Amino acid sequence: MSLRNIGIVYRKELTEALRDRRTLITTFLVPLLMIPILSAGFTGVMSAVIGNAKKEKPRVMVIGGADSPAVVEGLSKYPKIKIVPTAPDWKNQIIEKDIRAAVEIPGGFQENIGKGQAGAVKIYIYGGELKSALAAENIESYLKEYRDGIVTERLEANHLPAVLLKPFEVKQQNVAPPEKVAGAVLGGIIAYLVIFMCLNGGMHPAIDLTAGEKERGTMETILSSPVSRTHLVLGKFLLVLTASLITAALLMVSMGVSFTLLQKSHALDQMAEEGEPPPQLTLGLSAVASVFIMAVPLAVLFSAGLITISLFAKSYKEAQSYISPLMFLVVIPAVAAMLPGVDLTPKLAIVPLLNVSLLCKELVTGEYHWNYIVLIFASTCVYAGAALYLAVKMFQRESVLFRS
Amino acid sequence: MIEALNLSKRFQDKKRGEVRAVDDVSFTCRPGEIYGLLGANGAGKTTTLRMLATILEPTDGTARLCGHDIVEHPEKVRANCGFLSTATALYPRLTAQEMVEYFGKLNGLDSMTLKKRIDDIFERLDMNEFRDRRCDKLSTGMKQKTSIARTLVHDPPVMIFDEPTLGLDIMTARTIIEFIRECRDRGKTVIFSTHVMREVEKLCDIVGIIDGGKMLAEGTLEQLRQRHGENDLEEIFVKIVTPHHKAQEMA
């Protein structure tokens, strides 16, 4: 094994890669810009949508209630909704989104309450529609106020204290530090993005250095030099690995920076419920570092796999068509890991990709299960080693190098 | 010195089954001689030369270059030969100098020797003007010169040329022919393949006529002329190849 020769090949491939616009874009520009654009776009749209929905005074129709003027008047004075005149086609108007909801007061509602009989108010909504749900929420909050008023009156009339109905209060309070909250929210998506970027960053160089060489006719040139094929493929592999890791690292950096900025800009405040703190996006440095370390054997696996596959192809385009299905294959376990309830078990810990995704989810929340970490790191190294061995073997095969 | 000993190469082809691209070929080329491998397209010239350059491995038989066996010590063989074909392109994103340097380094030259060698070759081939220009910006002639510099950088005793003038314009082709002759005059062992009769007549000391993977005739031009009673190489070639074709069709 001559490190000198591998180094010569690596340096030459690096020189060429740095002069290749496509490599520069996929390795540097995409990871640096993707997260800011995605997160700015996402939060921008989300806060715009939610903000608008909250700002809008939902138009609500009252059905019936002629004999219950107190409720109707209360509703029309309630600032969070706007009562519009009743029309017979109210159902259609909800579907057409002319009004957001309708509230039905049954006949004799007020009278029945006075008599101490139970009554029921119905709210009609457009199921699954955010603005309609907000309208219903507002109607309900008024009706609750109204109901609480009646309850208080009744208690007072009977000289009973208010605690009779509410012997105690229930309140939730978060004690987890902000980065853990962020980890629980973001763990899955971060693992997914890192895995995707490792693959995406290595894809173009892997194709360029194998199928691209065949297409440009330099494969025969380099094979006629005294460098051994093993050294040649290892030099190429190292370059693909470098690109893959740089892409993943830049993604993490850009994610850290843009999330911190997003937090500081209070763009997320609107997404929070009233009275609650906005969602946390701050990630701990150690969480980011540990995810990156787990990504290293994964990047080895991807780089070797990408080289093996694209080596079969005769041209850049052919290689691309082999690799696109691979993208889907890789995305499936990464998405599976994002699902709530999918947690690490000893069996899942040896499933490639899924194990790393699940572990990253834990690492981001600051949990370190060392037995899993060792098992997953080791198993990924084994897969990576096997893939690299395969890549080296493939590079020795004439039927692959000179496929026609 | 090149000695091919019963060199054979078989491929598995999905449609045609087993293909004998090169079938039991033996020949010898000596230093200071140009050996011309003459044959039609698909005769087995490229496969033979690729095996000599250790880009392909023979299925049977072997060859020795400067005493090194092509199967056992392919790296030593490659260190002792320069291989040039129309398929050996240049790295488009490297400059002419970087291209030659890369191959010098892969041949284990230290930086002092490499610098001296490159300066010398670039001067000799009149390449200094486009030294730092990227290979994808070079004209065909400049590319050929860079390829020549690439094969010469480690000063190999054996040169292998696979249809080196294919698709080149007259002036560039002349540069190559001139270069091949110069290699012989410097005492190198030269083998080259072509289907152009004129090139053989102009250059070759010994001619091997190959068809269907088999070596059908071998000798100096004079010997071939006498043996077949023809003066024109093309007529000789047709005389040799036609019966072989017919026999193959019968089989």
What does this structure look like?
The complex is a heterodimer of chains A (404) and B (251). Chain A has 404 residues and is mostly helical. Chain A folds into two domains: 262 residues, no CATH class; 110 residues, abc type-2 transporter like domain (abc type-2 transporter like fold, 3-Layer(aba) Sandwich), CATH 3.40.1710.10. Helices cover 67% and strands 4% of the residues of chain A. In chain A, helix 12 crosses helix 13. The radius of gyration of chain A is 31 Å and the shape is elongated. The two termini of chain A are 31 Å apart. In chain B, helix 3 crosses helix 4, helix 3 packs parallel to helix 5 and helix 5 runs parallel beside helix 6. Chain B is globular. The relative contact order of chain B is 0.17. The model of chain B has no long low-confidence stretch (mean pLDDT 92). Classes of the chains: A mainly alpha (404), B alpha/beta (251). At the A-B interface, helix 1 and helix 9 of A face helix 2, strand 6 and helix 3 of B.
How many domains of chain B? The number is 2
Taking strands numbered 1, 2, ... along the chain, how are they ordered across the largest sheet of chain A?
2-1-3-4
Structural class of chain B: alpha/beta
The profile of the biggest β sheet of chain A is: 4 strands, mixed
Shape of chain A: elongated
The largest contact between protein chains, plus residue counts on each side, is: A-B, 21 and 29 residues
Low-pLDDT parts of chain B are none
CATH class of the largest domain in chain B, named Alpha Beta
Largest pleated sheet of chain B: 6 strands, mixed
Counting DSSP H or I runs of 4 or more residues, the number of helices of chain B is 9
